[in-house]
Amino acid sequence: MDDVYHAGELKVQEMAGVRIVAQRNGASVKPTIVKGASAFLRTQPLIVASSVDKEGRVWSSLLTGPPGFIEPVSETTLTISSKPAANDPMLENVDMNPQIGLLAIDFMRRIRLRINGKGRYDDTGKLWVTTEQVYGNCPKYIQKRSPKPIGGYHRSLSSSRRRHSLDSEQQEWIRKSDTFFIGSVSSEGKADASHRGGNPGFVKVVDVKTLLFPDYFGNSMFNTLGNIHSNPNSGLLFLDFKSGHSLQLTGRSHIVWDPIEISRFSGAERLVRFEVDEVVYTENGSPWQWDFDEFSPANPTLN
Fold this sequence. Notes:
By secondary structure, the chain is an alpha+beta fold. Helices cover 17% and strands 42% of the residues. The chain starts with 6 loop residues before the first helix and ends in a 9-residue tail after the last strand. The mean pLDDT is 95.
């Protein structure tokens, strides 16, 4: 199944010594949306999207809507009836570069589905996506949460701030986070969106422009790290699950293979160092809450 992987993914698989496992798991990657995936998508109230701006920077964005706002219309096409917050660069990015990565995630059932392909917004504001890769991921590291869209399903912008470094409140937000999303792009320009989870504190704030987080055992396909190996441009998305506020970071990621550094993170097989270029904080005008239920039993205990 090497044809589903690009050179960066193959190289990281080789460095990690998991080529055989990755080859087997690559069989799950399909160009089409199967029947079960269609049913799953129609029940979801949110989806994370990664896109690339004119400078090649990657952004991770949140799209929300009532169940049914994601609609598979064929085996290779789906529509999303939602726009990001008004300050989000995604609309402009997709208009310029159609490459898009999507991650649909059900926190309550711990199910996630990745869709990579090309997108375009039509005149009505509906996003059309043509699929190229569709595949599920395991339930590990997903904290169980129940959605409570008390202010409505669609997000509305209240206020926003842009910076080139993390302020003290944002640093504390990240230190307490148990979940974030990461967007990446291959050297060929293909975008991807993925999930990362762990116990609060698993993301370390090194300084106002640097984060360090562990890479735990996963499916051995290394889609995200393979992209980072070949193209460090990446984008992180942190959500405030009590209010729906979001924190978008765009910058560059680098894989850390040093065993001494890795040993400082319980359960880590590698680390990722993220360098911040720009920060966008979005205050949601309509509360979109999730009730916390339990941490993933797969989360490693922190040192």
